[in-house]
Amino acid sequence: MELHEECGVFGVYDPVGDCARTAYYGLYALQHRGQEACGIAAINDRELSYHKDAGLVGEVFHEAVLDRLNGTMAVGHVRYSTTGGTRRENAQPLTLRYVKGTLALAHNGNLPHADQLRARFEYQGAIFQTTSDSELIAYAIAQARLRCPSVEEAVRRALAGLRGAWSLIVMSPRKLVAARDPWGFRPLCMGRRGEVVVFASESCALDAVGARFERELGPGEIVAVEDGQVRTVQPPSAGGGHLCIFEYIYFARPDSTICGQSVHQARLRAGQFLAQEHPAEADVVIGVPDSGLDAALGYAEASGIPYGVGLVKNRYIGRTFITPGQGRREQAVRIKLGALRSCVEGKRVVMVDDSIVRGTTSRQIVSLLREAGAAEVHLRSSAPPFIAPCYFGTDIPDKEELIACRCSAEEIRAQTGADSLGFLSLDALKRIAPDAACGFCDGCFTGKYPMPL
Fold first, then answer.
1. Model pLDDT for residues 340-374, shown as the tens digit of each residue
2. Which of 29, 188, 288, 373 could be cross-linked to 292 through a Cys-Cys bond (beta carbons 3.0 to 4.6 Å apart)?
3. CA dihedral over 303, 308, 309, 311, signed as positive or negative
4. In terms of Cα–Cα distance, which of 412, 415, 419 is closest to 377?
């Protein structure tokens, strides 16, 4: 697996004034969504302060920083770049001072028409400090605020003129505003801990800070918090939205619940369907850490083949460790994963991974297992083949880099060195999340998107 997720956002209102530490722990729980950069912005007595940098949450923040940031409201962000590159100034939350005061913004998603939007704003005199599309949203909100009586109305008007994917948290000196795009591509939920109000990309972050899950924000919904009072600025759009199906396959933590569906259960079902569609005569089923583990367990349960721990992950390396260039990427796989010889030696192994993108990582892992003595390696993917890029916040490469766009299943099997290969079918994909109260975007597997591009 060589994909990077989009980002994670977190927002908190805390009348006691310990918001920075709450945001810190929330971001720790969302670290899997982005390991390139992170940041927290806070309001204390209506004054905005912030700290952000490249690196992991535990590297960027320490006690002195958190003490300085403490206040009654905070927004936090963990980042992996989908638009804008890895420049340090692209770290979020974005903060700006303008004629109406200050704003801080944390954004998860992507604007597919960012270049055209940037050009339009620049011809209006805008000067941008970053290359991130999130700054375009911040500028649109600041521009709308000049003609609006409130920041929440400015958010509503600004977003009405945009197209794309956003789960967004905006903070002014007095208010916290959370919003999802009308298609609901990216998740956003709300919880409470007494008088504390929390917004987060995933429910696992609510659990981490002791907040009780209250509900998901619906597609197109905008919610504002002022002095602890929560009110809906804009109700959800009609219909169930189009959540990215890859949240269940790869992005989200297995202990999260999204749209009413347990991520862990969705991955179990994917593995069970995979066993039905692509059985194998084998001695052990193993998963590729981390997001392939639940699917492997489902495959083992459905097939009756024992489940084993055949691959061990270096826990000091994040998902973003995979570096550009095939040679470096292949070396990185060996540093990131090790094969457990006692589990696989002399055995026929079913190896379940969450997906196959370029195929280079799969080839390296198959090679690791053979070097550890595996007699056979049967590769299974708990996702269908990637045939199209994503325009809504996932780092899926162009078609030229997607192995399924240029190779048949048999050619992919040969290139990876596996004894057999099986992908989850599109029909099964649609059935992995039966409890979800939403629709899905599966454009990367079908080439069909919920909105025109």
1. 999 999 999 999 999 999 898 999 999 999 999 99
2. 288
3. negative
4. 419
- Residue 335 has a pLDDT of 85
Given a contact cutoff of 8 angstroms between Cβ atoms, the answer to whether 168 and 158 are in contact is no
Quote the tokens at residue 46.
């209506």
Q: If residue 28 lies in a helix (H) or strand (E), which one and from where to where?
A: helix 19-29
Q: Pick the catalytic residue: 7, 244, 438, 441?
A: 7
Indicate the residue type of 416. Answer: T
Cα distance between residue 384 and residue 430, in whole Å: 11
Enclosing H/E stretch for 360: helix 360-371
Contact 402, 386 (CB under 8 A): yes
Which residue's structure tokens are 């299943």?
409
Q: Which tokens sit at 281? A: 């005569």
- Assess whether pLDDT exceeds 70 at residue 275: yes
DSSP annotation string for 192-240 = EETTEEEEESSHHHHHHTTPEEEEEPPTT-EEEEETTEEEEEEPPPSS-
Tokens for 272? 């069970």
Residue type, 214: E
Predicted pLDDT at 128: 84
Instruction: Give the chain's end-to-end CA distance (angstroms, integer).
Output: 27
**199 strand-pairing partners:** 11, 190
Structure token pair of residue 309: 């721990």
Can you spell out the DSSP letters for 317-358?
S-GGG--SSHHHHHHHHHHHEEE-HHHHTTSEEEEEES--SS
Residue 329: predicted pLDDT = 57
Q: What is the pLDDT of residues 171-199, one digit of tens each?
A: 999 999 999 999 999 999 999 999 999 99
Of 40, 163, 63, 147, nearest in space to 110 by CA: 163
Mean pLDDT over all residues of the chain?
Answer: 92
The SS3 call for residue 276 is: helix
- C-alpha distances in Å from residue 257, one per residue of 154, 179, 313: 31, 19, 25
CA distance readout (Å), 210 to 17, 22, 29, 43, 174: 16, 9, 12, 22, 24
7 labelled catalytic: yes
Which tens digit of pLDDT belongs to each residue from 264-273? 999 999 999 9
